[in-house]
C-alpha cells in the first residue's frame, strides 16, 4: 500500500500516536493507502507552523510568489501522468475527467501567478489640508482550506493559491477520500520553492478535527467545499468567531430546454452536465425542464444517448462512468432511486449497478415529496420534467433552496437573457452545460449552494483586508 504522512512546517510527520486510516480503492474496495490520521494536537501543530511562517512569508515579493506558482504549474505539467494515475486509482476518475482535472489545475496555478502583482491599493482625496490619504491591502494570516473528494486537485489549487498568492499561509485539510493526491500536492509546492510552513497538509476525518481547525485563534479565513450540512455548521462557527469564510456547497441545478432549442446540443449538454464523473459534481443538471412541444423527442434522444454510456476500463478514453466513491454514497444513490420509483416515478433508463458503478439514470414523474425532488443525490441520477412554458420552467427552476448553476438551451437570446436574469443561481450558461468553470471567473452560488466566490477575479478581496493610512504634514515651526 501507499504510505502517506502529514505535511507540517516543511516536514513529513506521523500523526500523534502514529494513528492511521485505510483509504480504499473505490472500484474494488481494496486497500489503496495507509494515511496519517490527524488528531486535534496535529491540527494545532499545523496551524502553529503556518502562523510562525506568516510574518516572513507575507513579506515575500510579488516576484517570488509569482515564480513559485509558475514553477508549480510547470511541475504539474511534467508530473501529469502521476497525478492522473492517482485520480483514477484513489478517486475512481475516468481518464477524461482525470486529464481535465490536471489541465484545469495547471491553468489555475498560472492564473494565480498573475495575482501577486494585482494586489494594489489606492490614494484618496482628503478634506484635511496637508493630509496624504491612502488605502493599502494586507494578507489576513492563516487560511484553513478544506477540500472535497470529487475534484481534489482542482480544489487544492483553487482554494489554496488565492491565499498563497496574496501573502497568506495555508493549512489544507483534505477529504478522507483523497489523502494521496493531497500529499502529492504538498510535494509539488515544496519542489516549486514555497517556504517551509507556508503550506501544510492534514489528512484524516473532518468530523474529528475540522472544528478545531476552523476555530483555532490563529486561523483568520476559511475556504470550504463540501456539503450544505457541513457548510452551515462551519458558517456558524466562523460567524461566532468572526472569521472570513467562503463556502462552495451543493446544488440542484436546472437545465431548461425551450421549444426552439437545438436538441442535439441540449442532449449533449445534459449528458455532460449530469453524468460527468458519474454525477458526483455540485453543478450536475439533476433537473431537466423541457417545453412540451419538444419533450417527447428530447426524452427519446436523451434516453438513447444515456443508454449508450458504458462501464469500460477507467483508463479507456471512451469510459464516462466510474465507481461511486464510498459505500455511504452508494447507499444514498440507491435510496433516492428506490424512493422515487416506490412513490410513482418512472425509471426511463439506468438504475442498475455493476459492482460499485451505477448506470446513468433518468427518472420521469418525479414530484414533491420524493427525496430526489429537493435533495442533491450526488450521483448519476436526473429527472426530466415536461413544462408548458418558459415561465413554468423558471418557476420550477427556482423551487429549491439551492442556487449554484443553471443551463438554458434556446435560439432566442432575448428569452435566454430573461431566464438567466430570473433564475436564482450564481451562474447561468446559455446553450452550454450547467457544468462550467474557469480559474479566473467568480465561481459560486447562492442560498444553500454557498456564499462568496472562488476565482482570481475575487481572490484579492477575499484574501486581504483594507487598511486606511494617513500622513499629516508637520506644522512649520514659528519663526523667531
Automatic annotation (TrEMBL):
Domain Aldehyde dehydrogenase: from-to ranges: 15-469
GO molecular function, one term: oxidoreductase activity, acting on the aldehyde or oxo group of donors, NAD or NADP as acceptor
Keywords from the named record: NAD, Oxidoreductase
Gene3D superfamilies, per the entry: Aldehyde Dehydrogenase, Chain A, domain 1, Aldehyde Dehydrogenase, Chain A, domain 2
Active site: 248
Signal peptide boundaries: none
UniProt-listed Pfam families: Aldedh (PF00171)
Domain of life: Bacteria
TM annotation in the entry: none
Family the UniProt entry places it in: Belongs to the aldehyde dehydrogenase family.
Stated name of the protein: Aldehyde dehydrogenase
